[in-house]
Structure prediction request, 294 residues.
Amino acid sequence: MFIWSVVYDGLIGLEVGESVNSLTGCFRLSNPIVVQMESASGGFITVDGEVFIQICEDDLQNNILEVTQINQIGTNSNWVVTDAGGTIVSTPAGPSVNIDVLPAGTYSIFNVMYNTVLSGLVTGNHISDLTGSCFSLSNSITVVKDIAIAGTISTLLGDDIELCISGSIPPNIEINITGNAGAFSSLLVLDAAGNILDIVGSNSIIPNLAYDECYVRHLAYSASFTGLTIGQNISDFSGCHELSNAIRIGKAIVDGGLLTSGGATFLDRCVKEGDPLFVNLELSQESGDNMRYV
Prediction:
């Protein structure tokens, strides 16, 4: 494109769409200014047609987003990932964006198209710090990433525990948790069907004597999770969460009971030499599958 100044006294042909070579009359043109026109457009980007993505990362970790771009204009292209505040946290080499390398949070994915030089595209800079003669950002794709990794639980007694309980107070079982990550977590005590019997806030489990067996699992979850209620089944959980392996705790309760003879626990008998001693015994409150008198 060219820009002139024209000075005239009577000029014919000065109309939009006409050539300057068609001008007639008394006039004189200045030198032209040459204007080179450039165009850039970041276009429109999506992931499977969506511009809002919610990711729940568990220990499988395979969160690679394949971004599709249309209607872009420009010679050069770069991909940009920012945090919720607009700070650049990643500049992927292509449209495959690896979310696994990022911590939990909210992010935006952009494409920037430009023709000559682009400055400021550096991790740690703000997206508004980008400068260049001709560049354009695409729309953004919002990615919300939650992390829920339940890890592995174990005890010094193994993962299939059979307790012999004598008396009314069961022993504490310390649960070790490794490899876990996430904003929230709890230990769950479940029945065999997966119904929640108890929600434990510490790593110490006291088995409930009302149940012959129970199962302990570690739950990691995010703020979007729902369903953590005693009596609820784990199949009804909703939102970002993960459950660990299970530890079974069974119990056998033994109690020698109360042994008496005629209601007494102390007997004073005079036995003549050679005579047998017979004592009538009554046993109550005993518990256990087998019993013998000693």
